[in-house]
Amino acid sequence: MVTDSPRPQFVLASASKARRLLLQAAGIHPFVCVSDFDESQVPISAPGEYVTTLAMGKAARVAPRFAHALVLGCDSVLVLAGQIHGKPATPAEAIARWQAMRGQTGDLYTGHVLISPQSVTLSRCAVTRVHFADVDDATIEAYVDSGEPLACAGAFAIDGKGGVLVEKIEGCHTNVIGLSLPVLRSMLEQLGYRISDFW
Asked: Out of 4, 38, 75, 134, which one is annotated catalytic?
């Protein structure tokens, strides 16, 4: 059921520029509040549980600061050959990651947590399969030198230079960028909002 109550403020509990731009392109202009949630306190387990736990930590840390807002927390990881990968810590790690990824297929997991003004909390995980191109070492080194992989879960950005290094995806495109817009639309509807309420 769609609510007739006034549109709440929409808060993004993430420093991700890509997530902010996705929301803006979809007509949602969020207030950004970085959570500073300590991700190291979450032990790595199953990837879906891991990303939703991180997303929950971010959203729950920010929500008490905004009494009448919808708060969205997200987090993403890439799973390749059963291993969970977040952002590479160094250029050398990014190069090694890409040498392992090239010509392979990985799964990009994104956890989404949405907390309503009434403190109702929804949690979802979306998974998109990514097929990486079999690129040579020189291309990998040039890509890492661009700096882009160091800021991205999985060491690539499909909406940037990394897009040319991906052969195809299976599943939600925006999920690979940082949040699944179809998942967000569904979560908003579950809370009684239309996405068009935020246009």
From this structure: 75
Domain range annotation of the chain: 9-198
Fold of 9-198: Maf protein (3.90.950)
Instruction: Decide: residue 40, CB within 10 A, 0-12 exposed, 13-18 middle, 19+ buried.
Output: exposed
Q: Tell me the average pLDDT across 132-136.
A: 98
Q: Which residues contact 8 (CB under 8 A, 6 or more apart)?
A: 68, 69, 70, 116, 117
Predicted local confidence at residue 1, as pLDDT:
42
Residue 5: the pLDDT is 55
- Tens-place pLDDT, residues 100-125: 999 999 999 999 999 999 999 999 99
- 158-171: per-residue pLDDT in tens? 999 999 999 999 99
Nearest to 22 by CA among 192, 189, 176, 191: 176
Task: Assess whether 145 carries a catalytic annotation.
Answer: no
- What distance in Å separates the CA atoms of residue 22 and residue 169, rounded to the nearest whole number? 18
**Which residues are paired to 32 by β-bridges?**
12
